Amino acid sequence: MKTLNVILSAAAACVLLAGAAQADQLQDIKARGKLVCGTLGTSQPFSYQDPKTREIIGYDVAVCGAIAKSLGVPMELKAISVDARIPELTQGRVDILAANLGWTKARSEQIDYSYSYFVSQQKILVRRDSGITTLEQLKGQKISAVKGSSSEQGVKREIPNAQTLTYQDGSASFLALQQGKVNGFCASELVLVKLKEQTDGSANPVDIVKKSLFVEPWGLGIRKGEPAFLKHVNDTLVKMEQSGEAARVFEEWFGPATAYKLERDFKIEEIKG
């Protein structure tokens, strides 16, 4: 009898282990009943706090919200810093990243990327009184960027003899430019367009160097080893493209009725690296 009990216990353990092995993040999210989305909360118009409602809104939030809707669960937003994005994801404190996450080879070795849902022109902002109009003039100069961002990596890669000074967020990086601590500030063109508009007519206007430093596709960040969840996210993005929802969301945050007045010149597609 004792032997039979041992055998039954072992069999039950095997069943539990088999169940655990089959469990995946897609099932976990549905069972938990919410999708925890990591986003910056400080990057208008991608994710930022609405001054009236105090809620975090924006393009990244809308895309992540569409993923949550496709799963049949509500979205819970978690504001994170740029350099905390990948640790928050790999340590399981968020399910997915919608956080200005440009593709880089180094990041792709740590996490999986969804299909690209945005393509970013990375440019450099300079003070108008500096006389700087070309990237060549920034060689050997000081350039600010958000710590841990692809902008920081891009400056080091594309202008290796420049001195890169990093700050915790875009506001601090821009302030360094206004105070003359750096000669340029590298970020997504959209972020820079807004800053340029804000300073036009002020004592310290700024301009954007016309030529892009580099172009990068942005994807949603997914933990490695979650093929079912990654497939669901990609399938949802493709459906958004085919239904026109992706274009509608872009129009809402970047279109003619916004301060950016951009035309969408990309489609959701696989990031090929």
From TrEMBL:
Q: Name one matching Pfam family.
A: SBP_bac_3
**Coiled coil location:** none
Q: Domain Solute-binding protein family 3/N-terminal, which positions?
A: 34-257
Going by the UniProt record, its keywords in alphabetical order are:
Signal, Transport
Q: Show the GO cellular component annotation of the record.
A: extracellular region; outer membrane-bounded periplasmic space
Gene3D superfamilies to which the protein is assigned, alphabetical: Periplasmic binding protein-like II
Q: Name one GO biological process term.
A: amino acid transport
Signal sequence range? 1-23
Q: Which InterPro entries match?
A: Bact_solute-bind_prot3, Solute-binding_3/MltF_N
State the family named in the UniProt similarity comment for this chain: Belongs to the bacterial solute-binding protein 3 family.
Would you tell me the protein name for this molecule? Amino acid ABC transporter substrate-binding protein (PAAT family)
